[in-house]
Design goal:
Elements (H helix, E strand, L loop, with lengths): L13 E2 L3 E6 L4 E10 L3 E6 L10 E6 L14 E12 L2 E8 L7 H7 L1
Antiparallel strand pairs: 1-3, 2-3, 2-5, 3-4, 4-7, 5-6, 6-7
């Protein structure tokens, strides 16, 4: 199980709760969820679905720039690698991910939240 209180990131994290969309290329499915926190290097996400994802798997993540943003375009999604994954309940998965493109980051999101 993931201890979301334990910080393993190299960069500071900021608590930001925003809607997000995840694309799992293996399953070819889009899933919805929300961010728990963000950093320039990655995200902690809660998804509303149990998943068979594991550390090392690659996914694509899109995060709403506002809480009310309903649509996230595929071209705005960033590739990420799962660092930690845990099914918390039969309906919820928590994922810790790191961005694969160091230029991607969520800097605009973290600046607004600060």
């Amino acid at each position: 199980m993931i201890n979301i209180e334990q910080d393993r990131r190299e960069t500071p994290r900021i608590v930001v709760k925003r809607p997000c969309k995840v694309f799992d290329p293996k399953a070819r499915k889009y899933l919805t969820g929300a961010t728990c926190d963000v950093s320039t290097g990655g995200l902690l996400l809660r998804l509303n679905h149990p998943l068979g994802l594991k550390p090392g798997d690659r996914i694509f993540v899109g995060v709403a720039q506002t809480r009310r943003q309903m649509l996230l375009r595929t071209r705005d999604m960033a590739e990420a690698q799962i660092v930690r994954a845990a099914n918390m309940t039969d309906r919820e998965t928590v994922l810790a991910v790191r961005f694969l493109d160091s230029g991607t980051g969520m800097l605009p999101l973290t600046r607004r939240a600060a």
